[in-house]
Amino acid sequence: MSEREPELEPEPELYPDLEVHPAKQWAVGVPGILHSMEPALTSMGPARTARLALAINQKNGFDCMSCAWPDPGHRNVLEFCENGMKATTWEATPITVPTSFWAEHSLTSLLEEDEYWLGRQGRLTEPVYKPAASDHYEPISWDAAFRLIADRLNALDSPDRAAFYTSGRTSNEAAFVYQLFVRAFGTNNLPDCSNMCHESTGTALTATIGIGKSTVAYDDFAKADLVIVMGQNPGTNHPRMLTALEETKRNGGRVVSVNVLPEAGLIRYKNPQRVRGIVGKGTAIADRFLQIRSGGDMALLQAVSKRVLDAEDAAPGTVLDHAFLAEHTVGLEALRTHLADLDEAAVLAATGLASHEIDDLAAEYLAADRVIITWAMGLTQHRKAVPTIKEIVNLLLLRGNIGKPGAGASPIRGHSNVQGDRTMGIWERMPERFLAALEAEFGFAVPRAHGADALRTVQGLRDGEIDVFFALGGNFVGAISDTAVAEAAMRGAKLTVQVSTKLNRSHVVTGEEALILPTLGRTEVDLQQGHPQFVSVEDSVCAVHASHGAIPPVAPGLLSEVAIVCRLARATLGERGGADLPGADLPWQDFEDDYDVIRDRISRVVPGFESFNQDVRRKDGFVLPNGPRDERRFDTASGKAVLTVNELEHLDRPPGRLILQTLRAHDQFNTTIYSLNDRYRGIRKGRDVVFVNPDDLAELGLADGQRVDVHSEWRGEPDRVLRNQRIVAYPTARGCAAAYYPEANVLVPLESAAEESNTPVSKAVIVRLVPHAAS
User: What residue spans define the domains of the chain?
Assistant: First the structure.
């Protein structure tokens, strides 16, 4: 506890109508249908709802923006999940923010509202500008907005004094022209949402197998003998994945869940597309649940790999895939030597599991010929996230579970095109081969110095090194760690610009000057020069397909993301680069008028897109080449997959403390809050809760229902505090707690980041619970 922490005054409950009910033991079914369609019908009416519902994830429709889960080859008539329909309703609502809103609501008043209220105000339809020293936005013309941004950018002492953020909702075409503009402007400051979620995955997989992407296809789940689901809640975050896991079970495969919390979707799934999901009991998904202590996954994976190696020693030549290991990998003997000394007591302390539970998981793995390991942020947001994911690769490689049907590494992305954005060049550290190809294609000197990622962008704003922050989508302030520090840093900017469909926290925490530029949603028809355009996305299994808007824009005058980027580029750089980029070939107007022109240029820069315009027009799109999956080719320095040695580190929990993780509620997509309910966990009408194991409550002298302040502790710094939370007794792993994101981001220190990937450590925050003073 910090001696500098001031005495806190009591405050009223944020959600006085909060209700706590028993957690659910199954997911989806009829309630999933009702909870998806009722808001849509209420907000949009039957005709608009039907038009959109029949177009989501269809081959001639639009790609759902709620996650990056791949589409099956055979589509159902209604190919969406509950949260997919809610995301569509949220975007396609006919409610708009009127011009009068900006005069009626000061920024000071908007700061008092939560994300839920802000999102419910409706679609943004006109550019607005907050002058310096003003407390209000006011309407501004598009031309004036672009001139203002261009003037501020061109007045900077260095291009590196600007940062350009990207949300994973952005299409391939918009992402490509965006990074092209940013690099033509002269910087690689391209932070994106990957920095905060799956950066650890890309870092680990690239180092070990040569590609930072999944090595499975959609159909592999139906072919797998075993799927190990780690640090992941598909029932809420990507519900259509439950159908793939159901196919695993229907074909005789088994599923093991490794998680800190039991999750309803992994207990039992009632598929609304099947009769048994409507009137029957549905399908039990997880055959085994290992309730692991937060941060213990690396120890578990090492312990299983050791048991596999021990089994090989007991029956030489019968357990490991020796032919695969000899031909395609390096590092086996070093791994074998390292794991020989693995301390079982340290493993049990780190995992909170019993030896027999680890034995059982090893037996499951050894009995399976085809194994998929799939994971999400429960693994990626730890200090040792990168070595943990390297241990996944180790375990898979030992028995040749990469590069064969029904097997592989399967990170599950959250944003619908976050993987495609990276493919298109949205990264502060793109490899030389991409930068050289970009330079050759467009005729200007592409900067090579690494840029700022998400955390370094906040640090740059805080330290006065970045003056302009531009965001193409997303809610950076709401999503990033250490909320108070991040907001103070953003207020230090000279200019902040947000390209958005609806209001969020990032619009009300601004620099001296601020702009909001409204944009088309993915659901809307994009007309350029009278011709409808389409965009494309890449899903979690490297499949690229087109996305076509289905309904007219909610208001006239909205610009697409492509148009916004191209007009900003013309205002800032000139039509083909201007005097500062002589000889550059940057036809921004052509890009805006016809997205085929963008795709033609992508085809000459990005491997796998050589026939982009033709391939994306196929009924099923196309799949990018994937060396490990397609041909057991590994583009590493050695040309082989790398078994790695990783030192086990135990996350210490001091007495009287808990390890807290942030997580989503069910009615939520990233920082977007669809309702105040978390149905599967039994929470209604509120979000100010902290989930704690009943045995930990007894040990700490606290009680279910009690109000507490959650204090996070970090290297002797003053406590960060999330105030007045209701304790909910919940079956978390012992010593662990959970609270909702983004509210609990205030507890995550900015400097607490994963090694190598610099991802915020949002799943391992040391906290203590202090009784809240009576109000």
Answer: 19-23+657-771, 27-92, 106-195+418-609, 199-411
Alpha-carbon distance values, 571 to 164, 469, 527, 568 (Å): 16, 17, 22, 5
What is the chain's percent helix, strand, coil content, to nearest 5?
Answer: 35, 20, 45
620-671: pLDDT as tens digits: 899 999 999 999 999 999 999 999 999 999 888 999 999 999 999 999 988 9
- Written as one string, the DSSP assignment of 3-28 is TTPPPPPP---S-TT-EE-PPPSSEE
HSE (side-chain half, CA atoms, 13 Å) at 214: 29
CATH entry 3.40.228.10 includes domain 199-411: yes
Tell me if the domain spanning 19-23+657-771 has CATH number 2.40.37.10: no
Residue 277 has pLDDT above 70, yes or no: no
Q: Is the pLDDT of residue 215 over 90?
A: yes
3-state secondary structure of 674: coil
The pLDDT mean for the chain works out to 93
Q: Is the peptide bond before 749 cis (omega within 30 degrees of 0)?
A: no
The CATH code that applies to domain 106-195+418-609 is 3.40.50.740
Q: What is the DSSP string of 222-291?
A: HH-SEEEEES--HHHH-TTHHHHHHHHHHTT-EEEEEESS--HHHHEEE-TTSHHHHTS--EE--SEEEE
165 - beta bridge partners?
471
CA distances from 485 to 122, 228, 489, 509, 748 (A): 29, 37, 6, 12, 10
User: What six digits make up the tokens of 682?
Assistant: 């039994």
- What is the pLDDT, as a whole number, of residue 1? 41
